[in-house]
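I am still getting used to backbone structure tokens and would like to learn alongside you. Please make up or recall a protein chain and show it to me in full. Would you write everything just below, so we can both look at the same thing?
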Amino acid sequence: MNIKKVGNVILAVKDIDKSLQFYHEIIGLPIKNQRRSWVDLGTSGALLSLHPASLTAQHIGSSIENGITIGFLVGDLQSAVDELRTKGVTIHRDIVEKDAGKNAVILDPDDYLISLFEPSFDDKDQQTGGYQGFTPA
């Protein structure tokens, strides 16, 4: 076996339209491919794929119960969290600062945990500057 990288993370969702609105319109992930029962989001690296749970298996439990967390890098965590609050997104855990950077956790429409991370760099020239919300680090 010669696996090169993660191709995509597939989320079984209760309501694909509601999840698409969250990930595309609120979070800002671009749509790469879309079919009636499948949506790929992202442009490079691993894609986030949404698929209706009703077509494959019963949707049971949330990521809080089953341990799944999706992580996104953000350029400015505070502005991202502020933006999400104004859009009514549930903040599961507010901003925590550690040596590696700042982190907050939100919930998507299916109660999947979404980790938002703004890395800290020893060399401040590497740190993002002037980015807002979900501009990548």
